[in-house]
């Protein structure tokens, strides 16, 4: 699997606790373990803003309310950390993004190009958010894509199903963690 990388997106404490989907966390952990065993680089991506949220326009429907919610009380400082079940290593890049896509406001494209990555494997929360947005941008960058359906989760199971069964296959191979892990051994 030369030139392949696994990108694990928004598996942050705050996101995981909000979605509450332990099966997706377990699947993402199996994907990370399989990638490490096969020496496939693992990258993590998460959303985080500067103090005072200068990156957020009030017109942004998804993020615009964050400054007001933050004014009501401080968030848990660990909410933006990668979930401990994934055991991120210091040598695994953490891409900080300021919008939905893992490419938005981050250095992800530079990291992938510098490593010669041509095949990107995606896992993330939410399927209709970071996974969809990142997949579209990665496809526009001519990357070969795989989506690990069981390592993705969405608040709406029907939206998740439609995306992984009908939308994503137009631009990516869609599989399970176990099938992908087995392919690494071939």
UniProtKB/TrEMBL annotation:
CDD domains: cysteine_hydrolases. This is Isochorismatase. It holds the Pfam family Isochorismatase. It comes from the Bacteria. Gene3D superfamilies: Isochorismatase-like. Keywords: Hydrolase. Residues 4-178 form the Isochorismatase-like domain. InterPro entries: Isochorismatase-like_dom, Isochorismatase-like_hydrls, Isochorismatase-like_sf. The keyword Transcription does not apply. GO terms for molecular function: hydrolase activity.
């Amino acid at each position: 699997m030369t030139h392949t990388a696994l990108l694990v997106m928004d598996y942050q404490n705050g996101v995981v606790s909000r979605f509450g989907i332990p099966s997706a966390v377990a699947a993402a952990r199996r994907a990370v373990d399989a990638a490490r065993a096969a020496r496939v680089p693992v990258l993590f991506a998460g959303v985080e803003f500067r103090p005072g949220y200068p990156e957020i326009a009030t017109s942004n429907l998804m993020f615009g309310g964050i400054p007001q919610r933050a004014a009501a009380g401080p968030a848990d400082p660990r909410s933006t950390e990668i979930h401990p079940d994934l055991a991120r290593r210091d040598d695994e890049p953490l891409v900080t993004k300021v919008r939905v896509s893992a490419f938005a406001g981050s250095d992800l494209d530079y990291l992938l190009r510098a490593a010669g990555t041509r095949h990107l494997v995606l896992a993330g929360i939410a399927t209709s958010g970071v996974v969809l947005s990142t997949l579209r941008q990665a496809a526009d960058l001519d990357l070969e894509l795989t989506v690990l359906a069981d390592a993705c989760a969405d608040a709406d199971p029907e939206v998740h199903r439609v995306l992984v069964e009908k939308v994503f296959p137009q631009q990516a191979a869609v599989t399970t963690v176990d099938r992908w892990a087995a392919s690494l051994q071939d």
